[in-house]
Amino acid sequence: MKAAIFQGIGKPMVVEDRPDPSPGPGEVVIRVGRAGICGSDLHMTSEPGSSIAVGTIMGHEFAGEIVALGKDVTQLKIGDRVAPLPFVGCGHCAACDDGRPHHCPRARIDVVTGFSQYSRVGANDCVVLPPALTDEDGALIEPMAVGLQGVRKAALQVGCRVLVMGAGPIGLACAFWARRLGASRVALMASTRRRERFAQALGATHFIAQGEVDQPAAAVNDALGGPPDVVFEAVGIPGAIGQAMEHVAPRGLVVGLGFTTKPDSYVGTVALMKELRLWFSVVYEKRDFQYTAEVMAAGEHAPRAMITDTVSLDAMPAKFESLRGPTADCKVMVAPWGIG
Ligand SMILES: [Zn+2]
Ligand SMILES: [Zn+2]
Question: Which of 114, 137, 176, 307 has the fewest CB neighbours in a 10 Å radius?
Fold first, then answer.
């Protein structure tokens, strides 16, 4: 099979031939239909602190068709179209039973290879796509599910005020779910106006370009009619959690979803005097995948608005590098078998 291979920090990936994977016990092999490029892929291939080994095939947001079943797999069949959670858990510990394979002590992510023509995945960790969903939709489930778990943690009160910091796909997913799960007003704040149309498409009611306002806190309060009850931090740079704490209302909640490998700090008295809560949220549970698939299959196509380009595997390394700087792209899809 063809696969995009990580060459090391600062080097573009190279497309090479690799042996086709075969499924281990409890695993299946997927013919990858579409795989999304994620901001965390860009982080992990640029920050020296990351643990990605040279030779790794990345890609954790994907969907496709099952072409091989491992031993003991009875819950899926050849030809099923699925979106997998990109962790292969042991399948029988408490975390796996709870639908959280990323907390399985034996979880593996290295076998999961979305940026290639085939990938192994755990059979227990696959969500079957309803017929209404395309492979593209399936590849959007992963980032949408990240937002869903974050918003679920907030248990929003109907009519509440929400601020989302960051207009990447995770911030956009938070805006989408916040609007559908109780928030009356959802302001999305980003450094520039570049992503405003995506924010509108995903359901944000207000957009604040931080570079255009003198007093961000006043702009947030104006937009929302008061300070936000919940702030979703989806920026992932040092200082962002501290900013979220500044914005949130007293006794409010900050949900941290941003990805950074750098140390961060905040002003203790801000958090203390507001008696605020901070809860981090990484990835999702299997039920977040299932619910996202159900909502999208019921005719909710707004997440598709995030897709700005689809590239072949051969074109992927150059496209991947282009996403490191300022870009008009939002979610880029890779089509390992070609576009069409
Ligand atoms: Zn991702
Ligand atoms: Zn396990």
Answer: 307
The pTM of the whole model exceeds 0.70:
yes
Give the strand order in the sheet containing 161-165: 206-209, 185-190, 161-165, 230-233, 253-256, 277-280
In CATH terms, the fold of domain 147-280 is: Rossmann fold (3.40.50)
What would the two tokens of residue 179 be?
């609007």
Domain ranges of the chain: 2-142+284-335, 147-280
Q: Tell me the H-state helices in the chain.
A: 39-44, 94-97, 135-154, 169-180, 196-202, 216-224, 240-247, 268-274, 286-297, 316-322
53 closest CA partner among 108, 5, 114: 5
Q: Which residues surround ligand 2, an ion (CB under 5 A)?
A: 89-90, 93, 96, 104
Smallest-distance ligand from the CA of 124: 2
Burial class (CB in 10 A: 0-12, 13-18, 19+), 312: middle
Q: How far is the CA of 61 from the centre of ligand 1 (A)?
A: 6
pLDDT of residue 283: 94
CATH of domain 2-142+284-335: 3.90.180.10
Residues in the chain with pLDDT < 50? none
Which ligand minimizes its atom distance to the CA of 107? 2
Predicted local confidence at residue 88, as pLDDT: 84
Q: What distance in angstroms lies between residue 215's CA and the mean position of ligand 1's atoms?
A: 32
